[in-house]
Structure prediction request, 364 residues.
Amino acid sequence: METTNDFHSIVVHNTPLMDVRAPVEFEKGAFPGAVNLPLMTDEERHLVGICYKEKGSEEAVKLGHQLVQGEVRESRVRAWTKQLELHPDSLLYCFRGGLRSQISQGWIKEATGREIPRLEGGYKAFRNYLMEELAPERQTAVPVILGGCTGSGKTVLLNRYAWSVDLEGLARHRGSAFGKRIQPQPSTIDFENALAYALIRHRHQGHAHLLLEDEGQHIGRCYLPKPLYEHFLTGNLVVLDVPLEKRVENILGEYVVLSQEEHILQQGQESGMALWRGYIESSIDRARKRLGGDRHKRIKEAFLSACALQDTTGSSAGHSRWIRILLEEYYDPMYNYQLENTRRKVVFRGGWGEVQAYLDGFGK
Prediction:
């Protein structure tokens, strides 16, 4: 049966992947764009595993065939063939590229006459390849770090450039204590796999520089591998200066208006608003120790007042007040202190247009 270990090509060409592992394995970690079409369910895999421990490999294989036969087997094959109709260039894999993927290959060939390649070494080999690609010594582009106070619109500017990688986008998080999105964050393994994909493609495109947003090692519950994070810290800083009024407007638009719309779209008007308000309020409470008692009280009172005003008038404009306090009295002093004490070199600083013009020069 045909195999491939051309992992670089898979990443660069975004080759569709069929993951025939059990759902519980897939949930722990998979590859970008992979579809879980398991040979065995979690329960079937569990029973086969017990049999393997008690009676050995041969009996475990027999049990597997007993559990997945007849209509059960046909339903699995139909799922695979449907995926192949949609994506004829798909590859398949199991954990180590062994028995499960070989069985799947054989059944697909019987049903369609086609031989679908499987990943040599399976998930484990491909995962090892991606982790090696996250090593600092594999990075050829020079990091350029885009900094600026909270609400400056750094992510919007960053995504204008093909030589950038959006870490917050990969982590599905806005990067602050209030940055959680309605869509769950990926597992750390999925985040690492997606980051490796992004860096491999960036290098394949031949960019001399890598534009990143100024982030901590943790982005929500996702975190950058320490050696790679330390490599990113070697990059020079480009600081985006945006007036407070504009930053309040940006935060209001993204963290309030857009976030409320996302919650309502997924949960409905009443439940969505309740979920959003609960999240923001709990975020304020979690930051109480860092904010200090008086500041925490003022921010929370301003937030609750804005919610009451929105209930009465339908306007979200009142949320500007607590956002302003949070930026002016907490986030801005913290960022300015970090900037004053950083060992990194600030190579450019300016407004939106000036920074954009500076970054445009890297693409020439």
